[in-house]
Amino acid sequence: MAGVPVWRSAARICAWLATAGAGVILVGAASVVISGWLIDGVEQVNGDRQTATERSALGEYFGAVSAVFSGLALLLLVTTLLFQQRELQLQRRELALQREELVASRAELRRSAAADLRGLHVQLTQMQMDDPSLSEVWNDFPGQPHAVVKQHLFANLTYSHLLLAFQWGDRSEDDLLHEARDIVRSPAFRSYWAASRSLKASLPPDSDEGRMFRLFERAMAETGGGDPPPGPGAGAGN
């Protein structure tokens, strides 16, 4: 019973193949007959086979001319594509320049914001230096006389100024090291460094602040100060 459907399927396939073959034969025969009619019609219109051949040669001439124009059209198409490619490249370059200008504008805005924030920090520090009672708000250097607190605050402003110049690229590490060697010779700055060193030492070593700290530590060691001992208010500093 299972072989009956298979036999029927094979019979159907054979029938379809026979029908397709017959269709191909009929189409081929019809094409031959129609081609003969067309050839007879062309010969009757042109007079004889020689005239038809001459007119066919004339048609081939126009075919050659058509091929020339087709080649010119292809050449124009290729030229147009090349110009479009050139325009796309110019547009990409313009977009790249616009992105660079946008990045530079953002960097300038960040620098401007940092400068404004720095100016506010200077104002707050100036208020703290002018009014001893305000020193108790931040309590950076507890137990120190106000004259010493003012020295520490000024030293911190100097240090922050150099850090900002380093971050903006106005100072190289060699420039900072040279300036640090002069600054750390001051006993007042050494006192400030002792009071704020532990906080600065905890900063990430790969940050600008961390690199700045290591430069001043190197300057301390080169000028004979070594590692300054921790002083009162060892966690202080801005």
TrEMBL record:
Positions of the region Disordered?
219-238
In its UniProt entry, the species of origin is given as Streptomyces fuscus
- Keyword tags: Coiled coil, Membrane, Transmembrane, Transmembrane helix
Q: What is this protein called?
A: DUF6082 family protein
Q: Which InterPro entries match?
A: DUF6082 (IPR045728)
Coiled-coil segments on the chain, per record: 81-108
Q: Which residues cross the membrane?
A: 15-39, 61-83
